[in-house]
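If your schedule permits, I should be very grateful for your opinion on a structural question. Thank you for your consideration; the sequence and its tokens are set out here:

===
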Amino acid sequence: MIDAKFKWKLADNASSATVDNLEKELGISRILATLLAQQGIDSTEQAKKFFEPSMEEIHDPTLLHDMDKAVERIEQAVEKQEQITIYGDYDADGITSTSLMYETLLSVGANVNYYVPNRFTDGYGPNMDAYQRLIDNGTQLFITVDNGVSGKNVIDKVMAAGADVVITDHHELPADLPNAVAIVHPRYPGSNYPFPDLSGVGVAFKVAWALTGEFPIEELDLVAIGEIADVVNVTDENHALISYGIQQLRQGMRPGLAALMELADIKANNLTDQDIGFGIAPRLNALGRIADANDGVKLLTSLDENESQKLAKEVDQANKERQNLVAEIMKEAEKQANSSANQQKKTLLIVGKGWHQGVLGIVASRIMNETGKPTIVASTDQNNPTLIKGSGRSVDSFNLFNALEAHRELFTTFGGHPAACGLSFDQGNIAPLQIALEEEANQQKFDPTVKQTLPIAMQLEPADVTQQLYNDIQRVAPFGPGNMEPVFELNNVKVVDVKTMGQEHQHLKFSIVSGKENLTVVAFGQGNLATLLSAPTGQVNLAVKVSLNEWRGKKSVQLMLEDLQINGTVIIDERTNKLTPQLFSSSDYYIVREPRLRDNIAPHVAPGYTLSIEEAIKTDFSGQRVTLVDCPSSEEMLKQIFTEDEGEPATIRLLLYQRKSAYLAGLPTRNDFAQLYRFIYKQKELKWPMQVKAVSNHLKINMDRLNLMIQVFSEAGFVTIKDDVLKFNEPTNKTDLTQTKRYQKQLAQYKVEQQLLFNDAATVAKWLLEYLNLE
């Protein structure tokens, strides 16, 4: 059995009366009515409001703290033509915030420029050197977007230097705030703003609205990108802002975005929040990670189509470089994560040399998702080899910020929140940090073996998955925290046509049988499942999202794999006649019959995971991954290893390396025995084993079979071998040679090889599961 990675939690049954009413009154499908009811929508009025959000849901910007002060100071600067600089941030939220504020200030006649800091030279948030350069160049008013509240020391110095600062931000508020002209923030203590979860671009939008006195509908496309990229709560006014923003994006007004969407193969008329989250946002984020985020602002604000095409190609190229960097670092990081030492740990600290700092957070996130462990991925700094810089990501059940906050003395710099952090530390603190992480995991009672929950909206049959279902799901979009995209459970499906995709075979594509046409399932980053799904298996259960694929103008519904479960033991066929170290990289139990072979592979396997037959017979493999390195000597040996009173192994992987094959050697026939008997009777004596090859050639019997026959004759008393001389003995009574122990041993080896080595994968798996009662 392959257990699910997550704990699937089926949603509570919605009220049948509510679902019936919504289905009837709105004329919608029962599945859509159920999805609405699960969101707490129990009336047609609420449903219509959800389907078509109103501008009235978007709150008055003047309710935000210090908005009046911010607008007054900006208007003063515009009137006096003071130099205004927008100080942005290098992620997608920061880039869209900067673009929105820049366009707004240009529209009211401001003397404005912008500065998006460099991740590596400026760092996150206010940087005094950068501010000073801007002040020296004439800036009199700074407006921060998507940053500022954590920069008290710098902001206070800027104010003291004679420039003013208006902060617009949404990040966590520290206890000691900057002494700025205004701090516009949705969660400012004591303020009356009714919704706390705007992103940076959402706050910038509110400033633009308050400043111009008009609802800036033309900027909603930027709001949708920034809010989705920052994974804010998609409820309340965010639901309306993002919904209208997606409508704006579908009209394709910005040349830069149109060019970028073409390169990303995104169709504007069908654009969804998924296209933003997985297509547009990562490309903008890539600039801040490995290039210059200022180019992102140029792209979003340019009206020149030629310039937009050029910038879009640069942005797309930066994203490709980012992907390549992540792939390269992932290979090394995964090796560390899967080392025998790290497999025993609850947390992971992975340190490399010369890794690109801009993508370490992505790598940490992927390693965390693969292992279920809080992960810090770090690397030596190019300019200071003794300094380690990195990023951390954590699961919901482990507060990474609190864990590291308790050990601040280990860090040169540190900041973050419960799920993520950025940090730097001296190379000498690697070991102390590893110890501290494990101690904090114990302190927080964190157990990486406890599964994270995957909410399941409902169980479906493959026949339910149609384009109409996709259309119904999109009616409850946009998705994000507070309105998560529904995941559906499909049970006992038949999997066919398993293929890997990508240069590194890192992605997976397969089909499930559904009526006349099979359904395609895609699993990004899960190419490692190909072997499991290609193997003959028991029941396969899937947790999936529903998406739409468009190829050459033809649309078809497809499923995106979130998780899977395979009931029953999975037989993995990797039979080979050549063993390499790579075959022993997975965390399996390796059962090896031949002692010399066992000694050879032991250095490549975690201690305690290389087992002799005797050790294997004593081991309970319930739920474990098991590899049979060489072929057992008999079918009975298989039953001794996998006894019926134990639980089922998750997988049995077959390498079945065999240096010499009993099956290929063949069993001696009655005629073979008679021919050899007559030859030895005639010769009386032979030099043995010196003459074995000559005898083999003379009798035309292969040497392996000939040696077996001599051993059988020896057991029957027909011959004796002493001092390298074989002598014939006259038998005293008749003997059935096929009943000798040696012959029976060879016969058992022959039979098990015939079953396991000389049949196709499906036949081997079927026989093995039936023989061991593992179905």
Summary: The first strand starts at residue 7 and ends at 10. The domain at 666-739 is CATH 1.10.10 (Arc Repressor Mutant, subunit A). The mean pLDDT is 94.
